[in-house]
Structures are given as C-alpha cells and as structure tokens.
C-alpha cells in the first residue's frame, strides 16, 4: 500500500532506499513528469500496436475550397516511458550532462560516432543564396555517411514486442513555416525512405514512421 503523502521521487524505489529529499535529477520536473514518475509501474498500461498506430495517426488532405490543407492526427505526447524507466532516464541524462557536457555531445560522439557532423552536401535544401542547385532529400537519404539507424536506448512504454528504431540524420528536415510541420514533400521522402529501407523485410502495415527533431536533453 502506497502512503497517501508519499512524494513522487519515492515511487518504484524499495522503501529502504527512499531518499529523504528529492534527488537533483528529479528536481524541477514538469507537473506532467512528476505525475508520471509518481506512478506505480503496476498501474501503468503499455500502449498496444493498435494504440501506437492511432497515436501516430495518418495525415489526411482536407479540401478547404481554396486549397488542400493537411489535417494532423498526431498525439505524440502520449508516448511516455514506464515510470521506473522514466526515473532512470532522468538520472542517466543528468550523468551524461555531468560527464560529457551535454546529452547531444554524448549521442554524437559515443553513439553516432560522428567526428564530422557536416552533411556531404553543404547546400541547404531551401537556401536561395547558393548558385548550385539544391540537392533533393531523396539524394541525401541515400548517403550512408549522413544517416545512422540505432535502437532507441530508452524506448517508450509500448508493447515490448514493438521495436523502436531511430534514424539520425546530419541534416535538418524542412518545415513549412506556416505550420511548423514537415513539408508534404519531406513527408513523402521519409515514407519512401522507410519503405525501401525497412519494408523489404517487414510488412508495410507493421511499420510506422515518426519524424521528430531532437533537442539537447532528449534522445
């Protein structure tokens, strides 16, 4: 039985290891993360494959009369980690920042092994100042040195039979400045890349891509 007044940082920790005060790595968490960390693992329900597909959603085209616009069903904030995993994730990130300066420095140097982060094409996809024709992303997505596929070191709380792979790129993915969402052309490039890279071995209906920019402190 969990005491009603037990602080969130004591959840999923043996009683004899309960800290008297909140550990530094769990300090200043958002209200949402405090609630997640302060949930018993046995009370957490992993997402099924069907639920994962619903969360990712499928982009549809909506006719507004003047033009076709995109309608997003994405609810990516529903992807959260099992409470005890989330706790360890915060602790691990704090350790990486202390030892490597930042999480992203660790990822680039130790996990991606990229001594040079410059993509093989220095031409921006949308840079009008360059005199050279911009390279389309379908070309970039064929340069192995600019891409690396890794398992997610800290997978979300989804069915354990689901494999979460992360495709890291040295180049930015172009956004639509009006919506801050990926352009429709970029989404198509990603779909094409996923299909030729993964769907030769796995049925297409068992693969779902998510495009997301990573910031320091998350991976």
Describe this structure in words.
Residues 58-72 and 122-132 have low confidence and may be disordered. 28% of the residues lie in helices and 8% in strands. The longest helix has 18 residues, at 83-100. The two termini are 34 Å apart. It is of the alpha+beta class and 219 residues long. It is built from 6 helices and 4 strands; from the N terminus they run H-H-E-E-H-H-H-E-E-H.
How are the elements arranged and paired?
Blueprint: H1 31-37, H2 49-56, E1 60-63, E2 68-71, H3 83-100, H4 103-111, H5 137-140, E3 147-151, E4 165-169, H6 184-198
Antiparallel strand pairs: 1-2, 3-4
In DSSP terms (H or I, runs of 4 or more residues), the helix count works out at: 6
Order of strands across the biggest sheet? 1-2
Beta strands, count:
4
Structural class by sheet pairing and helices: alpha+beta
- Profile the largest sheet: 2 strands, antiparallel
Radius of gyration using CA atoms only: 21 Å
Q: Helical residue percent?
A: 25-40%
Shape: globular
| Average pLDDT rating | 82
Low-confidence spans: 58-72, 122-132
What is the end-to-end distance?
34 Å
Beta-strand proportion: 5-15%
Order of helices and strands: HHEEHHHEEH
Short structural summary:
With 219 residues, the protein is an alpha+beta fold.
Features of this protein?
219 residues, alpha+beta, two-stranded antiparallel sheet, 4 strands, globular
């Amino acid at each position: 039985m969990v005491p009603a007044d037990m602080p969130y940082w004591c959840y999923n920790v043996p009683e004899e290891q309960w800290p008297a005060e909140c550990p530094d790595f769990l300090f200043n968490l958002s209200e949402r993360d405090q609630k997640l960390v302060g949930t018993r693992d046995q009370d957490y329900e992993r997402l099924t494959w069907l639920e994962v597909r619903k969360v990712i959603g499928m982009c549809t085209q909506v006719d507004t009369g003047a033009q076709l616009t995109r309608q997003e069903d994405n609810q990516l904030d529903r992807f959260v980690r099992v409470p005890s995993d989330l706790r360890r994730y915060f602790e691990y990130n704090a350790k990486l920042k202390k030892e490597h300066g930042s999480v992203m420095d660790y990822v680039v140097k130790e996990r991606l092994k990229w001594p040079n982060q410059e993509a093989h094409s220095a031409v921006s996809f949308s840079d009008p100042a360059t005199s050279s024709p911009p390279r389309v992303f379908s070309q970039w997505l064929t340069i192995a040195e600019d891409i690396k596929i890794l398992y997610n070191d800290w997978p979300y709380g989804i069915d354990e039979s689901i494999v979460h792979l992360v495709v890291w790129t040295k180049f930015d993915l172009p956004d639509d400045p009006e919506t801050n969402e990926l352009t429709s052309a970029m989404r198509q490039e990603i779909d094409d890349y996923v299909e030729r890279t993964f769907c030769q071995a796995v049925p297409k209906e068992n693969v779902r891509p998510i495009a997301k920019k990573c910031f320091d402190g998350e991976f």
